[in-house]
Amino acid sequence: MQGKAELKTAKLPQIRTELPGPKASEIVRLDEKFVSPSYTRSYPLVVASGKGAMLEDVDGNIFLDFNGGVAVCATGHAHPRVVDAIKKQAEEFIHISGTDYYYRHLPQLAERLSRLAPGDFDKRVHFGNSGAEAVEGAVKLAIYATKRPKLIGFFGAFHGRTLGALSLTGSKAKQRSGFGAQALDVTHVPYANCYRCPYNMTTETCGAKEEKGPHCARVIEEQLFKTTVPPEECAAIVVEPIQGEGGYVVPPASFLHTIRRIADKYGIMVIADEVQSGMGRTGKMFASEHFDFVPDIMSLAKGIASGIPLGATVAKADVMNWGPGAHASTFGGNPVAIAASLVTIDLLEESLMENAARIGQFLLDGLNELKKKHQIIGDVRGKGLMIGIELVRDRQTKEPAPDVMLQTEIELFKRGVIVQGCGTSTVRLSPPLVIDQEQAAFMLKTLDEVLSV
User: Fold this and answer.
1) Which site among 140, 239, 242, 365 is 20 to 30 Å from 248 CA-CA?
2) Which residues pair with 57 in a beta bridge?
3) Which of residues 295 and 9 earns the better pLDDT score?
4) What's the total number of domains in the chain?
């Protein structure tokens, strides 16, 4: 009980034992014996409880969470209003299946997401349980609506691990290794990573600052459509407005605008995967809004319900016109999850999106100062509280430093700060949106210490 009382008031880390402590070590041993070894764990954090932006492990150590359950815990851990909404709904009923029956929760949240999503047109919503399901639903819908079989994705993309979503995922070879032929007909092209342009161009030479748009987007029309992907057979272009697992890469707006123009020209759907970048993380409800980018279909999950499993596919109403039985989910749109989501959106609109924008800018400013001091920081980028710090061995060659990234994760953990890597050598910051300036300053100070060793 003493530990929980301390956690409620703690704002900064308190490390009391060796890491992992004795209780944590025993749980790690049990996990290694009985749990699938496919999970990726960089360090032995064994959580007992959480409050706000703080976590406590089973040995009483308190950590500052700059990962937020991989960008899921938008409103922080155990926000009292979210907890109350979950309790209240659980006391009424937990499940009945929106696939087969009606209840007030489904249209309530669907209406709200429809109003919030980009685009001045009517929309409909399909509910699932995860980001991968939201992507699968979006792809199925695009293929159904266009009667076309082919898709275009991007290198570095992460859309999920189910076989359909895995076909679109282009992040790491080990995610595909051993699973045979891909389930979907997907052609990948380079994402607009201007720090590491695959064509060795600049924004001035690639067209990113011109109406025609960047080369990496134009290649879809100028090369793919003339060689391997007949446009009349392409159902959708699937893109993350800000790339997540691939390294928290922020593209120029013209990249997304060019994709939109090409898609419109050939009757192709545009699917925006906002699973990681959506729900207030970037300081706006959806990352697409930063770029005035309007997709036909959007995939949502992660922060949508503050940690309760929920995914949503939001689409133009005239696109989502499939009939009964075409697509469904037994647990999708669970009333407890929807209750959590409705309160989550309230909190985002009341203050947390604004806080994400403000604290995010504070962190970006501080990280750019650290970049002047530490040559290993090659690039700092992001929107709101979706920030990537790319580590390199040499700023001229931009050689990645994945071992340093992993060591940075571990050293921050030892000092009580939780982060996670992404891309080849990028440290990602995706804290709960309740983080305050004192906690952000502590993160900057601690990172400075780690990189100074």
Assistant:
1) 140
2) 47
3) 295
4) 2
Question: Can you tell me the distance from the alpha carbon of 80 to that of 417, in angstroms, rounded to the nearest whole number?
Answer: 23
20 preceded by a cis bond (ω within 30 of 0):
yes
Pairwise CA distance, residues 293 & 117, whole Å: 11
| Tokens read off for 23 | 């209780």
Say how many residues make up the chain.
453
- DSSP per residue, 408-433: HHHHHHHTTEE-EEETTTEEEE---T
Which tens digit of pLDDT belongs to each residue from 341-398? 999 999 999 999 999 999 999 999 999 999 999 999 999 999 999 999 999 999 999 9
Same domain? For 26 and 133 the reply is: no
Q: Is the pLDDT of residue 177 over 60?
A: yes
Compute CA 81 distance to the chain's CA centroid, rounded to the nearest angstrom: 23
CA separation for the pair 304, 317 (Å, rounded): 21
The residues near 152 (Cβ < 8 Å, ≥ 6 apart) are: 186, 187, 188, 189, 220, 224, 229, 234, 236, 237, 238
User: For the whole model, what pTM was predicted?
Assistant: 0.96
Are residues 99 and 224 both part of a single domain?
yes
Q: Return d(Cα 377, Cα 426) in angstroms, integer.
A: 9
Confidence grade of residue 322 (pLDDT, cut at 50, 70, 90): very high
Q: Could you identify the residue written with the tokens 């290694």? A: 32
The pLDDT of residue 179: 86
Q: Residue 77 carries which DSSP code?
A: B
Is 4 within 8 Å of 49 (Cβ atoms)? Answer: yes
**What is the per-residue pLDDT across 21-79, written as a single tens digit (0 to 9) for each?**
999 999 999 999 999 999 999 999 999 999 999 999 999 999 999 999 999 999 999 99
On whether both 162 and 295 belong to a single domain, the answer is yes
Kind of pairing between the strands at 54-57 and 62-65: antiparallel
Sole residue written with tokens 């959806």:
286
Q: Which residue has the tokens 């008031």?
A: 9
Are the CB atoms for 151 and 238 separated by under 8 Å? yes
Boundary-marking domain end, from 281, 315, 347: 347
297 and 369 both lie in a single domain: no
Structural domain boundaries, residue 313: 83-347
